[in-house]
Amino acid sequence: MPDPQPQQIRIIARPQPNPMKCDFEVDRQVVDGTVWFADAASAQGSPLAEKLFALLGVQSVLFRGTGLTVTRTDAVEWLTLAKAVGATVRAHMLSGEPSVAEGMLGRTDLDDSIRERVQRILDEEINPAVAMHGGAINLLEVKNGIVYVKMAGGCHGCASSTATLKQGVEQAVRARVPEVVDILDSTDHAAGSNPYYSRT
User: Fold this and answer.
1) Which letter, b or e, does each residue of 5-41 get, where b requires 16 or more Cβ atoms within 10 Å of its Cβ?
2) Alpha-carbon distance 35 to 193, whole Å?
3) Any idea where the domains of the chain sit in the sequence?
4) Low-confidence ranges of the chain (pLDDT < 50)
5) What are the pLDDT digits (tens) for 29-53?
6) pTM of the predicted protein model
């Protein structure tokens, strides 16, 4: 009797605003942490990463817990590549092989690298612009590829804060630091419950 497991692994593709990137959410753990592969050479020894780079059009891959983000080249469209990525991930998860090479996880150097580059973008590009409106955006921490920021001054409680984060900060950061998984605003704009940090 055929093994019914392949039908039990659910993978949902979610295109990002950047047309070259697509998120794939898997209904089980892919990796315990965050690992970014900039190219095929960096994927050597990491089974799932190697398989994904073998697909036509894969430029870079970011693994993050129960999901992954794939960046494509101009050689292929998502209509074709997304199906291939899904099939590759599904088959790999059933194989029982590890997704990445031993030693790739549990490192903090990726978060440190992200933090350094995001801070530079805030210092040199974002904050000089928002300072003209009496605001500031502070980098709190980077954990497992997720960037946590807090808005201060004129940005705190501003009705345009979401637009500032999404259209300004997020676009600038994602363009320069593709390893970033997400950017979360930890500011308590409504002076109510803060979902990420306790107010001090």
Assistant:
1) eeeebebeeeeeeeeebbbbebeeebbebbbbbeebe
2) 32
3) 5-95, 109-185
4) 1-6, 159, 189-200
5) 999 888 888 899 989 999 999 999 9
6) 0.67
CATH architecture of structural domain 5-95: 2-Layer Sandwich (3.30)
CATH topology of domain 109-185: GMP Synthetase; Chain A, domain 3 (3.30.300)
| Length of the chain, in residues | 200
Question: Residue 116 corresponds to which tokens in the numbers above?
Answer: 């350094």
What is the residue whose two structure tokens read 């946590």? 148
DSSP-H helix ranges across 63-107: 78-95
Residue 22 has a pLDDT of 93
Q: What percent of the chain has pLDDT over 90?
A: 42
pLDDT in tens, 150-180: 887 655 555 455 555 556 788 888 888 888 8
Residue 11's nearest CA partner among 72, 70, 98, 74 is 70
Question: In this structure, what DSSP letter does residue 58 have?
Answer: E
What pairing do the DSSP bridges indicate for beta strands 58-64 and 146-153? Answer: unpaired
C-alpha to C-alpha distances, 6 to 3, 11, 166, 194, nearest whole angstrom: 7, 11, 36, 40
